[in-house]
Amino acid sequence: MCGRYSAAGKLSELAKFIDVVIQAPALVPRYNIAPRQFAPVIVSESGQPALKSLRWGLIPAWAGDEKIGDDLINARSESVATKPTFRTAFRERRCLIPADGFYEWERQGGAGQPWRFTRTDGSCFCFAGIWEYWRRPPATGELDFGQSFDTRPAWYQTFSILTTTANRVVAPVHDRMPVIIPAPHYAEWLDHRAFPAEGFPSLLRPLPALEITAQRVSSRVNNARHDAPDCLLSE
To answer: Is-catalytic flag, 2?
Structure first.
């Protein structure tokens, strides 16, 4: 799985591969992105790649409670095209999630040692993702129109990261890893009309082991609320 990642590098690097319109709030380095948090995501909007801020943890359109998103932070690439929860999003709403590393935990007795996995050359990359719209149902006693005293947004855009089997670098720590889309395929991954989902099995594979490196990092990353440069420090 992928339960935490970072996007601390310069996302402008991605502009070499995809002409994206930035609609997200001011971008700041993120060192410890966790489920339920909002993060930069590239979606296709009117045929144009757009960088927006979406919430991590996909909430299906039919869901009655946002808590379901806690269990849907990842989607298995082997079944994403057929599983009812994900198949429509996979067919119509694919996205790219900019990152420069992801974390997994090696179990050591009762504690977990965090590891950070990055590209060997240190460059930014994009996870394969899917996204969805979800409308929060009115709270009990709340009218479905007019003003509301609830300050939460009525609409959410949420995403899930696709995962695949781990390569030999990640496997000693975890048996799954996020799917990383090769940069030359960014545009076609986003374009569901020109490039149907059925044509992507060759992309939904683990990144070759030679292209990824692992580093033990500080246990500070265990705290999902701690988002600072020291998350990246060696243990």
So the answer is: yes
pTM: 0.91
CA angle 123, 52, 28 (to 5 degrees): 55
Both tokens of 222, joined, read 């265990």
Total number of domains in the chain: 1
Distance, CA of 113 to CA of 117 (rounded, Å):
13
Structural domain including 99 reads 5-140+147-232
2, 95, 126, 231: the catalytic one is 2
What is the spatial distance between Cα 219 and Cα 235, in angstroms, rounded to a whole number? Answer: 7
pLDDT of 206-225, one tens digit each? 999 999 999 999 999 999 99
State the residue for tokens 């993060």.
39
In CATH, what number is assigned to the domain containing residue 9? 3.90.1680.10
Write down the catalytic residue from 66, 95, 104, 211: 104
* Whether the Cβ atoms of residue 130 and residue 58 lie closer than 8 Å to each other: yes
pLDDT at position 154 over 90: no
Q: Output b/e per residue, 197-232; b: 16+ Cβ within 10 A.
A: beebeebbebbeeebbeeeebbebbbeeeebeeebb
